[in-house]
Amino acid sequence: MKEGKLFGLGASDMKGGDVGNLLAAASFIGQDLSQDIWVVGTANEELDGKGSEDFARYFSQNCSYESALCIIAEPTDLEKIYIGQRGNHFMKLHFSGKAGHASVQEHFQESALGNVTYFLANIEQIFEELKTYKNNQLHVPTFVVTSIYAGDEKSPNKTADFADLVVDCRLTPELELVFEQVMTDLADKYHFTYEDIVTPVLSTLTDNQAPFIQLLTDLSGAQTTGASGSNDQGFFENVGIRTVVFGPGQHDQCHIANEYILLEKLEKHIEILQSFIKKIQEIY
User: Fold this and answer.
1) Is the same domain home to 93 and 186?
2) How far apart are CA 11 and CA 232, in angstroms?
3) Side-chain-facing half-sphere of 150: CA atoms under 13 Å
4) Is 72:66 a contact under the CB 8 Å cutoff?
């Protein structure tokens, strides 16, 4: 700790939020509450959310609550309450072509990289078309190529007979309804096949007029909005657990060296959760 900051890997994203959850819940030990409090930590959040998916399934199959609410303590600076998120598909696109000698210029266009070049030249047009699936809360989908693998580096004079692109696609609920058809049309037009490389995460959107969201808004002064990235919210929503994201970490501290969380934010987070737990007993 130094100058009001707690340093450490994951301090903002999101171990600080975990600490806040634990300390807020622990302060009610021995008190007679009408609602149960669960504090849950799950694995694999950064990749495919498998831990949350498994827990949500366990909870829905083994617990018989009339209703349940969830607050995920991902970093929102205590200034925003994420009521929804775009879904995500991490996909691998497979392009094929004809291998040939690289001394012949025409062999490039016949190669897999010739097809890839045509596809990449039209990425912005693809993005413009996806904008038609805009959501008022979650905004527009995105379609971003993150890596390319092609050819044989041990044969630099041979054109590529294959090329694989990894794409990070963020989906609105509107795009999800037609996503398979959209991808089929793109695959036909640009001559590729595709597959998901991790289990897709569905988009989700919670009613921002729900009483528990109004309560959290009143207590924190935070604004409701949609998350730009994705998190595990959808797994809980899918089993009927109304879920928002609200935590003390700072976005600009995520995944960087010398990551820290402000102790003032952490203390405020605990106070907000304590007030929330007390008042939510009167609503549900």
Assistant:
1) yes
2) 19
3) 25
4) no
